[in-house]
Amino acid sequence: MTVAGVPADAPREPAIRALVVDDEPAARRGVQLLAARQPGLRVVGECTDGREFLDALPRLRPDLVFLDIQMPGLDAFDVLRRVPERELPLVVFVTAYDRYAVRAFDANAVDYLLKPVGDERFARACERARSELSARDAPGYTARLLRVIETLERRLDAADGGGDGRRGTAGAGSRSAAAQARDPAAPFVSRLGDRVTLVDPGDVLWASSSRDYVRLHTEDGSHLVRETMTAVCERLDVDGGSFVRIHRSTVVRIDAVREFRVKTSGRLELVLPGGETRAVSRTGRRRLADALGFPL
């Protein structure tokens, strides 16, 4: 974890102290850059996962935390449930989940930022945070936040729907017209504000999804593309090529597999490049065993 230094000539009236929590360096850097353009907002530290956040919270005492929802180990929901009520900062969720899943926030005082984040949307979130901070200690704030978390979890579960394979990998006979018309070798297009990045399918190590968005992970970072996992699977020739779908939300390149971990429950976890872990579903376990050529 890195902690921002405090300038010697810092004003006596403190700015809003913000903490950035995200496992992706590019995402943390993006929030830092956006925050630097917001008057009265100072990022006092960064955390790469939920455990670092829990350790840093009593030391840094942020007023506001930009908290990624999906993180390895403890996710945002696990983290917030472990924070004592009196230490709970104002939370702005940062998520790659689609707008339908996070509509619950619109009727509450907690805000969210949908990746990739633009300047205008970030500014609105900061303005809402400034207003909310004045009422943060009002009775019911913590209970309201916990209700938001529970509502979001229910909606995400409903959005995922069904089990493995219900919205699973598309076979050769179910390719969409759009996918058929697209050259599989063409690069994926990732847009962040006014920046456009082209991602070669051959550079993808693994991919994680949330409905209409997929995050492509490469050796030089991760890139968010507005595509469904089904479309990405078609492009990458999953389950029959060099990729295998280990979960309805995760696809991995077979030669990027580094390590397996068997949990006490018997469930399998896959260790990916960079040390991240992802759960392997029962169906994914069979696919992975077939791809690797030995039982798991």
Helical stretch tally: 8
**Structural category:** alpha/beta
Question: How is the main sheet built?
Answer: 6 strands, mixed
Q: CATH superfamily of the largest domain, please?
A: Response regulator
**Strand order, biggest sheet?**
1-3-2-4-5-6
Mean pLDDT over the residues: 75
Radius of gyration: 20 Å
Order of helices and strands: EEHEHEHEEHHHEEEEEHEEEEEH
Report the sheet-strand fraction.
Answer: 25-35%
Please give the CATH architecture of the largest domain. 3-Layer(aba) Sandwich
What helical percentage do the residues reach? 25-40%
Quick one: overall form?
globular
Per CATH, the class of the largest domain reads Alpha Beta
Number of strands: 16
End-to-end distance: 36 Å
Number of domains: 2
**Low-pLDDT segments:** 99-109, 161-182
CATH topology descriptor of the largest domain: Rossmann fold
Task: Walk me through the structure.
Mean pLDDT is 75; it is low at 99-109 and 161-182. It contains eight helices and 16 strands. The chain has two domains: 2-160, Rossmann fold (3-Layer(aba) Sandwich); 172-292, LytTr DNA-binding domain (OB fold (Dihydrolipoamide Acetyltransferase, E2P), Beta Barrel), CATH 2.40.50.1020. By secondary structure, the protein is of the alpha/beta class. The strands form four sheets. A six-stranded mixed β-sheet has the order 1-3-2-4-5-6, with helices on both faces. The protein has a five-stranded antiparallel β-sheet with strand order 11-10-9-13-12. Strand 10 and strand 11 form a beta hairpin. 30% of the residues lie in helices and 26% in strands.
